[in-house]
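Q: What does the predicted 3D structure of Protein-glutamate methylesterase/protein-glutamine glutaminase look like?
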Amino acid sequence: MSAIESRRHRKPIRLLVVDDSALLRKTVARMLEDVDDIEIVATARDPFEAREMLAAERPDVMLLDVEMPRMDGMTFLQKVMQHRPMPVVMFSARTEEGGELAMRALEIGALDVVCKPGGSNKPLDVKERLVDAVRAAGGARLRTANTPVDSVPAPMVTERRSGPYKRSIIAIGASTGGTEATNQVLRTFGPEDPGILIVQHMGAHFMAAYAERLNANHRIEVKIAEEGDIVRPGLALVAPGDRHMGVRKQGRGYRVHMIDTEKVHHQRPAIDVTFNSLAACARADAVAVLLTGMGQDGAQGMLAMKKAGALTLAQDQESCVVYGMPRVAAEIGAVDRVCGLTSIGQQSLRAAAQ
């Protein structure tokens, strides 16, 4: 059964929209009116109305504005996660402060952040992101711990890694739930470990804040990838928003290059583009890691990497927020090892040493 047929046989996702702007509420309603598997069951102007709608309508997912009068969305998100945990997608403005708030919302427990329409953020692009985010949230497994991952001390590595490494690159792909998953995985890595490439499905306007947050939290350097950046130990390069990231062989090493082609699996950056590029140029000199997320991006690229000699790891169902991409990869035979989130970082280093 295809993904479209599967959605037709399921009940629509019941959505509560919370935004103080009547225009934005109407805009969201228009965006979703022809989406059969999403139904807006209620709207609210602020968290106080939203609280009543939560009790009366019991929605599956809440779309929550970040900035509102009387009580801001971040405060309400914290209260919801403490007292009535549910899938939440944040609706944020395109500002530098908006990016920082988006990262904080994901720490608290929001599953995704969608940028509001306006400026270069076209309504059709917003609709595509919004539909994907709500669908993923509708099938998500909520994080049960109230403690943000950032507040957990980095684990002590008690065993010596099996160096020197035989593989130069560890490539990580993630979607819904991936911001917290990559944050957890990167705790394992140190300055001497292989270069890392990260492809995270996220709105382009939030990518810089995401990379800055990872850079502040870990022992390695993390930055947005730029054309010609060298893939080297102790550095994680994050694919920039709205551009695919490829890799080219140069001498004994590798450099990244940006690709401005069409979206793949409705995504740009797409994991498959990076994985396929590595299959072509790095071959057995790489490790592929596929984390939580909806859809199938990364699965075929991971299979190509495996056939080229790379070792491949996927997150297990139990620890995934959305067991989509890793599931498809496992089903098509692309996965060498299935690992829990707490061990997949260490396992990727072991793979790099083999």
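A (community wiki): The structure tokens above were generated from the sequence. Residues 144-160 have pLDDT under 50 and may be disordered. The first strand starts at residue 13 and ends at 18.
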